[in-house]
Each structure stands twice: as structure tokens, then as C-alpha cells.
Amino acid sequence: MASGDTPTDTTSSDLSPQGADASHKRSFFGQPRALAHIFGVEMWERFSFYGMQGILIYYLYFSVADGGLGMPQAAAAGIVGAYGGGVYLSTVLGAWLADRVFGSERVLFSSAIIIVCGHVALALLPGFVGVGIGLILVALGSGGLKANATSVVGTLYSQDDTRRDAGFSLFYLGINLGSFVGPIVTGALQSSVGFHIGFGAAAVGMVLGLIQYSIGRRGLPASAREVPNPLSGAGRLTWTFIGVVAVAVVVGLCLTGVIRADNLPGIVIAVTVLAAIAYFIVLLTSRKLDATERHRVFAFIPLFLASSAFWSLYQQQFTVIPIYAEQRLDLNLFGWAIPPTWVQSINPIFIILLSGAFAALWTKWGARQPSTPVKFGLGTAGVGVAFLIFLMWSGGEGATTPFFAIVLILFVFTIAELLISPVGLSVSTKLAPRSMRAQMVALFFLSIALGSAVSGQLASLYESLPEGTYFSIIGGIAIVLGIIVAAISPWVLRLMRGVR
């Protein structure tokens, strides 16, 4: 290993001059200074990710005359949902590589390079070739970056640091700064110049993020480069062979028509469910876990289910809601017709406005704040309430839903999101066994993968069912599930063994 890359004990590094104590001398809004580096690369990655995704579904189903590929809407939404699921499913690979081979920081850096290549492919390659190559690369790179950025943030704090949830909320603010600006820039370019110029802007944003992170990565704690459970030489050879075979099998299934655009969402759902079950089995049967760590993994199961339900509704911001915005929403704002892609910047605006307030609230309440299971229950029920609000305008035809309606709905989305997403990132690092830190974060992202893929499947129901029926069913189910999670929170807390 190069100088400075020697793995160190995570616990001791949290209390070293690079860790928690140093943050009192040089801080980033009261948080460890190194958080600024991860904040920056994640902000630009979100700019590129949401900027590209903001125009992706329209590129797929707009007619060829309008610059699109002319796919049916349901198929386009299914691909977007499957792609979203693929992004979070690939966090498993990224986390495994971090825990067993390279360490989180190196995987994060490599993943950023892969994302740049994916956005360049979307910008330069025409038709379905560009879509296929670009989405695969962006999905792989984003998955590796997501799980490991979160894991690296976790190394900045000691286990009992009360700033931890507040720090993750600030990290989440960086995510949403990029999420806000990305769709505005790419949407404006797509509507005025064309889709490929919009994809090119996403590529430029990711390049800026890569440059920023390259400059600041040396300031991260040594524990960010630790390989918690390294493979032996023989193990690396075995897994390399398995990886090559797996890629060959997937390519073969695509070439023979077994994997197609119309069945891709169902395949992603099945693979994600199997991966989650396998992950829980591996964690729970590992001899490296002590009794406390094993109980904490059990505690994560109901949180995983609640999170999956939440994301199956929330991720419809990229499947059902873009279709709704383009066809049912009155986009005339003060006499100016705004691009439908800009609707996707509403949620990040609320995140920017409210994430600091939530961070301050959790910090002020300290140990008196609601427990993680209660937050998960409230968030799941909250996103269900948001879908019931659609009922006030259901049954109409054409662009009859006022713009303020989607603003209200996405405001409720945001409240629910702040109760689940940053809290889920934080609790995954707190409940994680020491030897499988990044892989526990990947489990949380698997819940998002499952929800994202389901959101693509639900889009076909949106087209076949009356609006009122669709919004009533999925909203009501989410509310009931949220109430159940909140009701069993005392039992979950006992399994969490001191973690709240």
C-alpha cells in the first residue's frame, strides 16, 4: 500500500486528530471539516444524476419528431424504474468491493470516473445504444459512489457523537443542492436545444465533482481507506472468475431476448428481493458477529420493509409524476409555460429549506427526539398522505391540475423523506457490524432499489386504473404500514440494543 493508506481501527480513528476531536478546531458548519469534500462530490453527482433522470423518461417516450425514441409511456416508465432499481442494486457490488478489496474511499473515487463515462455516452451516442451503455455505466458508478460516500461520512464520527444525524442531514443538503439545479439546467437545455445537449450538461457537472473530490480526498480520515474484511489472494482470483461469468451470463440473456425492456422491472425486483434475502442470511450467520451485532441486524428487517414501501411511492417522482406533470398539470406560471422537468426541482427546494431545520431540531432534542422506528413509521405514512392529496384533482382531463397542487404534494413528500432518508443512512452505519460497515449501508440502498423498481411497475397500473382508484389504494396501504411500524417500535428498539 502507498503511504497513508494503511488501514487503521475505525473506533480509534474516530477519536484521532483527523476524527471527531479535530472538528472542534476546523469545522464545516459545526461538523468535521472533511465532510466538505464528500458534500461536494455528492452535490455534483446529484446534479448529473437528477439532471439526466429529469429528461430521461421524456427522451424515451417523446416522439422521434420531438427528439425522443417513441417508446410507449408504460414501457418508458418501466425502464426508468428498473434503471433506478439498478442504481441502488449496484450498491451491493460497490459496498462489497469496499469491504473486501479496495476500501470505501478508493471505490468512491473510481465510481465517480465511471459515472463521467456514462454521462458522456448518453450525450454522444445516438438512440438505444447510448441509452443502454450510458445507463449501465451511470448505474454501476452511482451505486458504488452512493454506498461508499455514506460509509465515508460515517467514519467522520464516533459512535456516540450526537452530531451524527445532524451531519447526515447536512450531507443530505448537498445532495439536494445538486438535485435542485440539475433538472433546471438539463430541462432548459433539452427544451431549447435538444436532449443530447441536456445529457452533456450532466456530464460536465460530474466532471466538476470529480475534480473537486480529487483535490480534497487526501483530507479524509485513514479509516475511510480501511478494508475491513480483505480477501485473500486466492479469494480475489475466485471472485474475479465469478464476476466474469456473471457478466457473460447477463450479456447472453440480453442477446437471446430473455432480458427485454418490457420485463426488465420485474427482473430487477426479483434480483433485488433475492439479493436482500441473501444479504440478511450472510449477515445473520456470520461468525464475526457478536450477539449485540446480530440483534441489531434483526432490528433492521422491519426498517428495510418500511423503507421499501416508502421508496416505491417516493420514486414515482421519476415515473408517474413526470407523466402527470406533462399531461395533467397546468404549467402556466404567471403567464409563462415552464418545462415539465422543472417539477422535479420542487422537492429539492423544500429539502434545502427544511433539512437544516430538521438537523437543528434533532440536535436540540438530542436523546428526546423520536426513535428511528417511529421516524420510519411517520415517514411511510406521510408519503401515503401525499398520494391521497392527489384525490382532490383526480378524474379531470387535460392540464387541469393547478401548479400549487404539485407544490403541496411534494412538500408532504419532503417531510416524509426527511424522516426516512437521512435517518436511514445514519442508522445503517450505527447498526452495522464493524466488519461489514459498507455492506450494511448497501442493505439500506437495496430497499431503495426495490422501491424504485416497484415504482416502474406501478406506472403500468397508473395507466390502466382510474386516477382516484390508483392514488387511493397505494396511499392507503402506505398509511396502514406506517402505523404498524410505529406501533412495533418498542420491540424494534429492544433489538437495536442501545441504538436509537
Structural classification: mainly alpha
Q: What is the mean predicted local confidence, pLDDT?
A: 80
Largest sheet: 2 strands, antiparallel
Q: How much strand content do the residues show?
A: under 5%
Estimate the global geometry from the Cα principal axes. Answer: globular
Per DSSP E runs of 2 or more residues, the count of β-strands stands at 4
Q: What topology, given as strand order, has the largest sheet?
A: 1-2
N-to-C span: 37 Å
Q: What multimeric state do the chains show?
A: single chain
Give helix % range. over 70%
Poorly predicted parts? 1-25
- Work out the helix count: 18
Rg over CA atoms = 22 Å
Order of helices and strands: HEEHHHHHHHHHHHEEHHHHHH
